Amino acid sequence: MSRLDVRKTYKLYIGGEFPRSESGRSFPALDSTGAVVARVARASRKDLRDAVRHARTAQAGWAGRSGYNRGQILYRIAELMEDRFETFVSQVQVADPDRRRARRQVEASIDMLVWYAGWADKFAQVYGNLNPVAGPFFNISAPEPTGVVGMVAADDSALLGLVARMAAILVPGNTVVVLASESRPMPAVTLAEVLETSDVPGGVVNILTGHTDELIPWLAEHMDVNAVDASGATSDQRRLIDEGAVHNVKRVVGGDPLTRSPYTIASFTETKTVWHPKGL
Amino acid sequence: MTLAPSARQSILPDRITNSTLASFVRSVPSVDEVGATERVAALSSRSIKRDSKAEALRLAVQMMDLTTLEGMDTPGKVIQMSAKAVHPDPTDSSIPSVAAVCVYPSMVPYARQAVEGTSVKVASVSTYFPSGQADLGLRVAETEAVVEAGADEVDMVISRGAFLSGDYFRVFDEIVKVKEACRDAHLKVILETGELQTLDNVRRASMLAMAAGADFIKTSTGKVTPAATLPVTLVMFEAIRDFQAATGVKVGMKPAGGIRTSKDAIRYLVVLNETLGSEWMSPDWFRFGASSLLNDVLMQIRWLETGRYQSADYFTKD
Amino acid sequence: MSTELEGRKADVVAPRIDWSYATSRESTDIVSIEKRYGLFVDGEFRAPKSRKHYESVNPATEEHLAEVAEAGPADVDAAVSYAREAYESEWGAMPGAERAKHIFRIARMVQERARELAVLETLDGGKPIRESRDVDLPQVAANFFYYAGWADKLEYAFPGLDPEPLGVAGQVIPWNFPLLMLAWKVAPALATGNTVVLKPAETTPLTALAFAELTAEAGLPPGVFNVVTGAGETGSHVVGHPDVDKVAFTGSTAVGKIIQHQLAGTDTRLSLELGGKAAHVVFEDAPLDQAIEGVVNGIFFNQGHVCCAGSRLFVQENIHDLFVDKLKARLATLRVGDPLDKNTDVGAINSREQLERITELVDAGVSEGAEMFQPACDLPSRGFWFVPTLFTGVAQSHRIAQEEIFGPVLSIMSFRTPEEAIEKANNTPYGLSAGVWTSKGSRILWMADHLKAGVVWANTYNKFDPSSPFGGYKESGFGREGGRHGLLSYLKGPR
After folding, report:
1. Whether C332 contacts chain A with CB within 8 A
2. What is the pTM for the complete model shown?
3. By CB atoms within 10 Å of each CB, which of B2, B32, B272, C174 scores lowest?
4. C36-274+474-490 has which CATH code?
5. For residue C494, is pLDDT > 90?
6. How distant is the Cα of C175 from the closest Cα of chain A, in angstroms?
7. Nearest residue to A209 (alpha-carbon basis) of A88, A53, A42
8. With an 8 Å Cβ cutoff, is C397 touching chain A?
């Protein structure tokens, strides 16, 4: 007799927990032949609302940790991704069966996390500085996290596009609400499971699987989201995001979701400049 | 207005007005919060083992003001808690009584009766605890009433609003008047440090309260979070130390609220031991305002004696 | 005292305890020390070609710990050539991301073995276990973690500077923070792509040797990190070796000058982190009780065996007596004793030689007319110990105000104005560090601007972080360790 396997339920990741959508909806994840491989939670606007709330609650604590601590946690995520290497590979293969490409993508994702982990305790040294103002004043500019960031993950990147942008956003102390790839949702859910076991505080990362176009307007117009990473969005989606951002002057950030740069980190920071007189 | 004993006067200005008291308050040294927190962390890493721990835990029992301050308190509750205060562990008569029971004014007569003939004192809150938001006359009258009803100790609250708005005279004067109303009862002055928020304020309020006649300064009502913390306690000990150096007068200290485990209690005793010294390691000068702490201490005492980790089932809940 | 149950309550004398903490000794079971150590060369331990060994001793008990190899010229030569080989064939060309992962792994392994390494550090050097456990080891791990992250980001460190490693670094470190000084040197050297030959201090080799074993376990390619133990002569061979591209030294100014002389006329890159005689300035508006803690930490942390120790206290004259009284009371609560006791604050002096130096200078202080204060203190009979000491009535010209004592001895002077404080603070050939205590922000910044010291601590003291550059002015040395600036020592460039 062959043994029946116990299939995983693919849920949302909000506030450090794994709820189903409050709407009770789900949708199929398809492989490259169009066959249904699993059903995945389909997030609603209320799930998104809850995710933003959790992201906001978690943000001060996350930003208040030392860069060293955040770096350690990002490194730990890499450790646990490496531990679940084969699972990630097989899930990346769902949409694109080429095993070598899948392996390279997972390796690149892990290495991307390690790269960004190493920025957390040194980014401010490269991006912040003393300003030599003309006058007896101490003047320093330092980067601070912008707050709660919404992210539209690149639809055609099962894992790397999400990881690369998520890491850059987290480094300076932002929290994030991710709209995962609609066509390739499974690795995002497994990533959420890794995050939950990697000392990432609940609410710092929230991952919503669902129909991206349904969720984008709610994210783009949310008055308590400070910035949106639109690097993974299509140009139509970008348009919507730009228009929604107007209401609370959100920062909208573009770019290439697969490249890495400390200037990506900078896009999700505000610069604070402080003056103090020097004298008796 | 009569002033506190003349030793206290030695650090006060000759004329007590809001302006002179404000200068007095501002002359208190500032506190660096990061440094104070570091000192406390270093002291918290003391490793207290075996005999030292057992000794400290027994003393902790004797330093406790076993407390119930709830809207739903009844005579029954107070009588039961008082029984526990006198005999904390019915299976072990070597466990000493606690220092006091601490109750609302209406419960004083029941507490009084329950601890009659024992070494346990009756402490009553007063002055419209916990908010203190009432006319001074009413607050003084309440104090007179609880003393009349048999309270040995009075725990009053300062007017935090007055302090934060700079009305130091009012804070000072209220303490002086309540102290008078206490007659022979000793007075603990609750600063409500959670509302004062900064360690600078805690240090200043401590000095003001001591100069006005407090016998003890106390951190909190327990109704506001944060209640007692180690950094706040350290700062209050340092103020007490400075006050004694300047006036010769010793004032006691009581942290209250949020102290739940033996580990916490021992940390407070370490900070006390290393800031004020062994002269202060006595219920005459230090009390814990606590309720659930007692059972945890009893469990730890039992663990040290038997070498077995304990269960809450074996310790009475009163 | 009546025990009659009369009236309201029984009269009972309130209990009081004189609470002295029972000894709480950290177990040494976790550590296993070899009887005899070889040199760590090319990824493994090997007997020294010199065939010489010497003894490493526990300074708290004078007990023998292990026999350690004494590397001779041939040993140093071998180590350097393995380091060169590893640089050429593997490490120098390795992509930064891979180097980073090697070093991250080492950082994580240090965290895993932190307790064991802390106990070993205390046994070998005499510092309190609380310090090696709570300060040294966490900083060691943090340094490797921090620098690991630079390995693949060097192009962002200095605009316009194309980062290239130097080659083989010869590093000589002191006995006061053995493993931490190793981390300060080795982490940036490896991160930038150099290979290392390390000479630990004669009296404290054991944690370097344990660390070497750890690197092998971590899979660090052989030859990238090498340890040659020995004394001054071994160090001299490392420094003078013609195939060493870069020398980094932390130690006394006297030896630093010898090294600078030894390298004169060569193009070997050099960085020096030498002695200090830091001024610790306390103004009247300081947060007083925290300033007391800062002053105590500044001079008694690690028994005063700290190059940046705040050894000259300048108190504003109008609070001098008050402050000194508080200091004396605080000294009385310091616990001096068994470094393995978790409640010990001040441990053993590192060696007999150091104890003699401290004693000589303290005697000079007394004979020159300063007033000495020492709290009552029971010292163990075996081992090397010195009671925390302070001197008042010190004058600038006293030896105890000029010379680095490197022990738990504080010299106290007063000042009237900030300008006077600056003048006296800077009146020294040293310039490593300084401390300032005041509530006034603008004064902190003014003082920081005027103090000739590479590190200024305001309203705190002895704070270290891998991201924070550390190093001296004047005869306290040159070059910076830590932070972005710390990379420069190990990269080719205009400097």
Report:
1. no
2. 0.94
3. B2
4. 3.40.605.10
5. no
6. 27
7. A42
8. no
